[in-house]
């Protein structure tokens, strides 16, 4: 087993750090939260909270990476591997800068740019015959059918709103006709030796301000054979056209028996939390896709996942002061005691392991309510006015 250090940068680095540690690496993490789990999992952590709202700045990120390398005793000439998670969808130039300094185990800047640019992606889907909702750059004319307004390069669902022609048009957005159905994602490992798939189902946790906010995810789900074949065909066609590599995800809405592709995420996504195994095989396979020639073969030989679900707990009852509690082992992304969480922001992640995906999801949904009750019933939050905890 290797003890090689590896750099990880993401809005939240805990998920990648956990998988890296399971795979035998020592992760050095730059993220926005530096929560207790990430600190425990990592050889060193640097916190860049401004990236959560403003994106990663090239200079600040470079300084943070060199700081954690210095803390861990990693020399500037060691040329370490670097893995990227969420947070670079709007910052391809930062990816390009990182690739000049580190060994990048991530889709390069041009791939990310093409995958997240609606001017490129949706005409490509049309040319490839891949079903997708009607998408446009200009605001649609008022109509009875609902349209969604999405931020270019957005992730997590909080950037999505129903378009209202009476409101001021926001910059850097595109518009997509709303379709309703089951949210299915295909997590794909793409290597030089082929392409492998696993499927997840997700659900929303809507709030008044963010009706399409991510709620949770369940995997490894079984799909109808015809629907699965259509999803796989779409992904197999699109992967080489975008030059995708490593762990990526393709998000679909299945309407009846027709999957509609709505987004491509050229990076490891939330599914890593529920599809990885005890040996960090998905992380190892992701690295192999960029450093070796047998990523898919490694996956087929070693990957041993169990049905799992994961969900976010949000501060939806008002501003929350994190109490000093004994967290259950199924809670991750634990903030330190005393940290103040603003209303509707994510607090922790809960997970559930079960015999089948449906049971795992049911348990997970119950656990989100249990943890919220514990947090808001603590002494730190009992003295707040009723309107602060509604």
From TrEMBL:
Keyword Metal-binding attached: no
TM helices/strands, residue ranges: none
Location of the ATP-grasp domain: 223-292
Record key words, sorted: ATP-binding, Nucleotide-binding
Pfam family, one: ATP-grasp_3
Keyword Thylakoid: no
InterPro entries, per the entry: ATP-grasp (IPR011761), ATP-grasp_PylC-type (IPR003806), UCP016817_carboligase (IPR016677)
Protein name: Predicted ATP-dependent carboligase, ATP-grasp superfamily
Lineage: Bacteria, Pseudomonadati, Pseudomonadota, Alphaproteobacteria, Hyphomicrobiales
């Amino acid at each position: 087993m290797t003890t090689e250090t590896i750099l990880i940068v993401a809005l939240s680095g805990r998920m990648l750090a956990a998988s890296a540690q399971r795979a035998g690496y020592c992760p050095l993490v730059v993220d926005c939260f530096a929560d207790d789990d990430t600190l425990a999992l990592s050889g060193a952590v640097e916190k860049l909270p401004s990236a959560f709202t403003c994106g990663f700045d090239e200079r600040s990120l470079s300084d943070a990476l060199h700081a954690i390398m210095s803390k861990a005793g990693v020399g500037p000439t060691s040329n370490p591997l670097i893995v990227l998670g969420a947070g670079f969808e709007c910052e391809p130039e930062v990816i390009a800068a990182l690739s000049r300094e580190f060994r990048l185990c991530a889709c390069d800047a041009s791939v990310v740019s093409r995958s997240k640019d609606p001017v490129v992606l949706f005409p490509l889907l049309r040319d490839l015959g891949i079903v997708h909702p009607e998408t446009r750059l200009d605001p649609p004319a008022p109509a009875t059918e609902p349209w969604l307004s999405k931020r270019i390069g957005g992730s997590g669902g909080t950037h999505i709103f129903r378009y209202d022609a009476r409101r001021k048009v926001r910059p850097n957005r595109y518009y997509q006709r709303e379709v309703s159905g089951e949210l299915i994602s295909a997590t794909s490992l793409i290597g030089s030796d082929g392409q492998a798939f696993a499927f997840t189902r997700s659900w929303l946790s809507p709030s008044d301000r963010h009706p399409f906010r991510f709620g949770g995810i369940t995997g490894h789900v079984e799909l109808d054979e015809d629907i699965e074949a259509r999803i796989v065909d779409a992904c197999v066609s699109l992967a080489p056209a975008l030059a995708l590599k490593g762990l990526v995800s393709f998000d679909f809405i299945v309407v009846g028996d027709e999957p509609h592709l709505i987004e491509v995420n050229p990076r490891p996504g939330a599914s890593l939390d529920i599809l990885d195994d005890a040996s960090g095989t998905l992380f190892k396979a992701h690295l192999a896709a960029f450093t070796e020639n047998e990523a898919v073969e490694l996956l087929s030989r070693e990957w041993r996942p169990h049905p799992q679900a994961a969900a976010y707990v949000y501060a939806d009852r008002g501003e929350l002061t994190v109490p000093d509690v004994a967290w259950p082992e199924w809670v991750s992304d634990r903030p330190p005691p005393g940290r103040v969480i603003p209303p509707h922001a994510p607090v922790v992640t809960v997970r559930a392991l079960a015999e089948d995906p449906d049971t795992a999801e049911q348990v997970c949904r119950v656990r989100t309510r249990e943890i919220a009750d514990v947090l808001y019933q603590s002494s730190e939050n009992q003295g707040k006015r009723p309107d602060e905890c509604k």
